[in-house]
Input
Amino acid sequence: MNATRLKMGYLLFLVGGLLLSVPGFATVEKSSTPAAAPAASIAPAAAPQKAEQKSKSTADHSKFEELKRNFRSGPEVTKACLKCHTEAGKQVQHTKHWTWEYINPVTKQKLGKKHVINNFCTSVKTNQTFCSACHVGYGWSDDSFDFSKEANVDCLACHDTTGKYKKIPGLSGHPNYKTMEWPPHSGRFREPTDLKKIAQNVGKTSRASCGSCHFYGGGGDAVKHGDLDSSLKMPEHYLDVHMDAKGLNFSCGECHLSDAHKVTGSRYAPTAAEQKGALLRGKDDERNPTTCRACHGDAPHTEYAKLNDHTDKLACQTCHIPEFARGRRPTKMTWDWSTAGRLDEKGHRIQVKNSGGQVAYDSKKGDFTYERYVKPEYVWFNGNINYTLFGDKVDGSDKVKINEFMGGPDDPNSRIWPVKVFRGKQPYDVENQTLAVFHTAGKDGAAFWGNYNWDKALKVGMASTAVAFSGKYDFVETEMSWPITHMVAPKEDALSCVQCHKENGRLEGLKGIYMPGNNNWPIIDFLGYSVALLALIGVLIHGGIRYLTSRKGG
Amino acid sequence: MSERIYIFKRFERFWHWSQAALIMFLMLTGFEIHGGYRLFGFENAVSYHTFAAWTLVSLWVFAVFWHFTTGEWKQYVPTMEKVDAMFKYYVTGIFTNAPHPFRQTTLTKHNPLQRLAYLFVFVVVNPVIWFSGWAYLFYNELSVVGLGGLPLSWIAFFHVAGAFMMLIFFIAHVYLATAGHTPTAHIKAMVTGWEETD
Output
């Protein structure tokens, strides 16, 4: 355990005598070998001396000849990487980070970012130039992208340690190679990306590198997941007991153990109910290492063993993540596309901010609401999720479940899980009764974010799918659930018993559980209290008569 | 003329009162756990309830031992003799100062209704509460004894039903404790061991 933890804490780069540390990433490494400095102070001329250890890695990429040159583009860097890391490109190409595709082995549904619809920006289709800013590749702008070309793999997206590598939406997965204004119309300009420096400083993934995409899902910090945001770069103890920068200081990879670039743990195929104990080091039984039990075992509560009795019904997360969006930023809770496109009298885009400073209305996107410290909703979940995909029939008069967590109280593989339910309104085809996707971003005449014209945006969006579009659309209410599993609170902040064990507690309404504290047996309560009350009345009357007759008699 | 007889020995009195205190406390904490009012807080109530339950178990180990070694268990052998007379006494006689149909002695210290009531508590109410209570406590280990599929709601059903039976017994018992020679005679006897009789 200790060895792994030390392995994770990682690298200090000394370049030209300067300590370049990325906020939220680099941790100062304590040398495990006796330092050279004290020896030098005693006997300055003594030889041979041990050189100062810069990092745990056995390779200093700044010394590599292949990287001592200027790079004009990302793919050029990749080619240099692949000269030594000969298998890395192929490995990445087998991962979801590259394919954005996942076939659910149970439902056979074709999932992954490439295929699903959500109720945030709704779909990747026709918007790849923008969406691929979070693809581990270069150049995915449309369906003609070559997924087999290894030079298209982006190594730096995950292995940058400088924090200076930024893939810009609109550049099809590339960083900027020329000076450009970013964000648009902000008056701020980004210098060309210094690929040489970034390439010479590559290293392991970190909270910051994973977070550069995963913290910003849904189009901004904390927006999508609710349990992932940029406060996890350097989290406090209360926010995440494992990632606590001054404590255990876990990286993402500490739980999401990876091999051959395959990162474990996936919300497309989560392990809802781990039945076994802790993972044994070295034993390869293909179990998911990201579960709580993979480390904590099946009876983790030693002080108060009764808590272990809950594990047949509850996921650990249910008690140990009492609220989500506990970071610095609120998470988005609703998104109503139906109001998008309203412009001011001059025909310009409108943005309205709420009292918290967040954008509450944007002509490009519609109305939003945000929340912090949100109590999750709770569902039975067996790890299987059923999606509403392109072409699936929806009922416009009812709320559409974009995804549905399967499972129930009688399924031994189900546990009660906390979820963020994201609610919205988005376009659907009234005649064909399918969800409709639209062309969102781009500099062409159809993109909604330039023209505010639903007809055009929907027509182009739908043409990119195999689904027919009638041209008649309206907006339908949708719901999408996200499992809450990050930002695990310290045990002191876990749910107390009474948060559920009372009337109208947290799990109220959830089927198939007996909840002491919530009067679950109304019949026995009615009978019990009635008979007890009758007995009490009986003895009072009996006693009263005795009292009266004894006085009479006395 | 009243006479005094020694009925309750020292251990028996200790057993009675500590058991009384434990059962009242168990009812107080138990019904809070079941829901409806808040006194100690759910978490504390569970801890206290569990602790009190184990204390009662320990007490019972001694009580069972005592009853067998002293032969006092015979006091609970049921009899239907004079049961009708006892009923008649509680329904009418007690109001008219009629003589008590039962005469306490050291060898038969309980009247026939008491015998039946206590025996019912020992062979029905207690086992229901105890076995369901243990099932509650060892809920996740039940598969070891082949009861892995037993749902918590059933266990709780029996435990709560047993608790209500105990509550009803408690009400009747406390009231009938005043139905002695004088209203406090039985209670005094349970404290001192000496019962005054007619």
About this structure: The first helix of chain A runs from residue 2 to 8. The longest strand of chain A covers residues 415-429. Residues 283 and 289 of chain A are 12 Å apart (CA to CA).
